[in-house]
Amino acid sequence: MAKEEKTRIEKRKIGDKNSVSLIEKMTSHRFLIVRIIGKTIHSIWLGFLAIGVFIAWLVTAVAG
Fold it and tell me: pTM of this prediction?
């Protein structure tokens, strides 16, 4: 029983290491245009996250 759980945990760890997002694949692509597109999408996503965090902070600051 413990051995089965140990192998299941090991498989999960290996699966987590192998799962790479599309953006991470694009930023390390061999073609320059694909890397530029990947970095642009990543930058836009970070901008949206920053705006969302600011709005969340603003709402909590006003409520407090």
Answer: 0.62
